[in-house]
Amino acid sequence: MPETHPAHAHQFETPEQQYEVSTLGMWAFLVTEIMFFGGLFAGFIVYVTFYAQGFAEGSRHLDITLGTVNTLVLLGSSLTMAMAVHSAQLGRRSRLLIFLALTLALGLVFLGIKGVEYSHKFHEHLVPGPSFRFDSALAQNVQLFFSFYFAMTGMHALHMIVGAGLLIWLMVGTARGRFSTEYFTPVEVTGLYWHFVDIVWIFLFPTLYLVARHQ
Amino acid sequence: MSTEPAAEHPNYLTVSHTVRSWLLTRDHKRIALLYLISISGFFILGGILAGLIRLELLTPQGDLLLSENYNKVFTLHGVIMIFFFLIPSIPAVLGNFLVPIMIGARDLAFPKINLLSWYIYTLGGIFTIVAAVTGGVDTGWTFYTPYSSIYANTNVVLTAVGVFISGFSSILTGLNFIVTIHKMRAPGLTWMRLPLFIWAHYATSIIMLLGTPVVAITILLVGLERALHIGIFDPALGGDPLLFQHLFWFYSHPAVYIMILPGMGVISELITCFSRKRIFGYQFVAASSLAIAAVGFLVWGHHMFVSSQSVYAGMIFSFLSFLVAIPSAVKVFNWTATMYKGSISLRTPMLYAFGFIGLFTIGGLTGLFLSALAVDVHVTDTYFVVAHFHYIMVGGAIMAYMGGLHFWWPKITGRMFSEVWGRIAAIVLFVGFNLTFFPQFILGFLGMPRRYHMYPPEFQVLNVLSTAGASILGLGYLLPAFYLLWSLWFGAKAGNNPWGAAGLEWETPSPPPVENFERTPVVTEEAYAYDKPQPHAVPEASRA
User: Fold this and answer.
1) Residues 6 or more apart from A202 whose CB is under 8 A from it?
2) What average pLDDT is seen over chain B?
3) In chain A, N or C terminus with fewer CB closer than 10 Å?
4) Domain B29-506: what homologous superfamily?
């Protein structure tokens, strides 16, 4: 038997096969994620055509400054994630650790800002349900808009939280020396996931904050 | 491990015996058996509920169940049979066992995820059963809004959570199959040499990956609407219940193909083996699986012909629904052409294959009635629809599952079942099935609506026939439960290849060793090379 890497699983012939399998697996998973968010986007597109005015009124109550800042924060985190994968490929462990930590920090900043936005909506009685208050003839359509807002950004935030957990797991693995130039698949695969979650926001931000308000 | 003397290799069943070694196993063959056990449990439960429905419908008045309970019984029957039996049946049991072996791999690409999918499935099942025993749910398996999201006073959220969770198990199974089939085929096993069982599972997996997440988000939104007032389908806010139907059927129509495509894969294996012939038109049969998967995503609107959907949308959906008949017919014609001048032996699995072809054809042809806009308006929500989809689901998918289970039973367990009893059961099932469901076509055409526990007295004769058929059908399912279990202890040893079949799975011992093959096989010829001289004589399988 040739000497094998400790991470080499028994069902694979070669480490290359294992690497290809893992990345293909993550790509296939991301396809399901696209369909998952796709259902929400499809519903939103239907309603924004039905109720353009109500959705515009709702959209104008979103904080465009915080949204923009968050977009930049998230784009920054994608950059640091790409740098982390690059460091892993080069086998530079301390740089890898730093970039993972930076990505995690930016992700948490995003979630923090999102939390601030949510609490504003809560105080303004814009959360759908019995406590919803909106002084307009279109109040019900506005409530529908905020149903989408919370469902879509909430689902996205949930994915961010999962991503943060994965980053912590990678940092522990890095600190323990699990990754090397021969084996960095988990970093690569988590990177794919992180970029995907980022891209979802890149679609969410204009859809909710920018396009809807100008009807 | 590989240094042990060749005679005493443990197989996947004998390698360890603890409960822990089963519950924490990563062996695809053991996970397939875990699925087999849990799926059989759900099948029995769903079958008992079907029995209750047929008993109630024995008489025109409601005497066994009140309407509320009847609603809960048919809802649970649908939810369990669709989400917890039919969808996982062939892929999670036979597919799990066979996909790696048929392509010469040691395991699936992600063994841990495979085990996880079984736990997720079990968790979803527990939620659904808890929902059922703590009050039940009466929305029908389709969870139509706004009834499900606002008005129903039953356990909608718990059931929805159960269905939502179980969806992830089928996503994970599909993901595992796709990656495995792409990346782990044995040397020489090109795409055009793959068994058609593999092609069918590949097409099924694509639907699982693309469709399931859409129903997941849809059911999640219904749950959010009930629990948190995120009212996306709430008409009071301007929400459109029709949007729910679009999103729901975007998955749930392709889900029909999740149930039937793997069955078609099974039938291709059975027909070739028991006709001793190459499959007729291999490329067409393989491509028709992909075509069904692709076109299947474009026909969901035919469930909504009588909703407020636009007439033009209806016409397009009607046309596209007719298109699905083409790849389906390609399969049926090619199976028939394969049998032509074949040397056919009427063994138990082949009887199931015959049953499948006949019943699937009737189910498919009546599907064309329903694709026609004008006819559909007449028979929507009648027993005609019920009969149609039971011909596809029970007459098609379950016949194929039973045929496959019998065909690979010797491989899975290493034992032969009783051929005589096997044939008797297959015939009993065929007779019972037709007696149960054929009268329902007539009932539906005469106008008997589905989902009511009472009906006008003039429908009683046909309903009595149907209920009588259901009792024969029930007997037909009980028989295999006995003789298959019996064979585990008293069946004759199977040997590597009791049917004289082609395919990698028959070249390894029964039951297979832990890593499936002594050494990775090299494939040098196409699938189903039955007309070449066989390397081994075809033994007549011993009878128990």
Assistant:
1) A71, A74, A75
2) 93
3) N
4) Cytochrome c oxidase-like, subunit I domain (1.20.210.10)
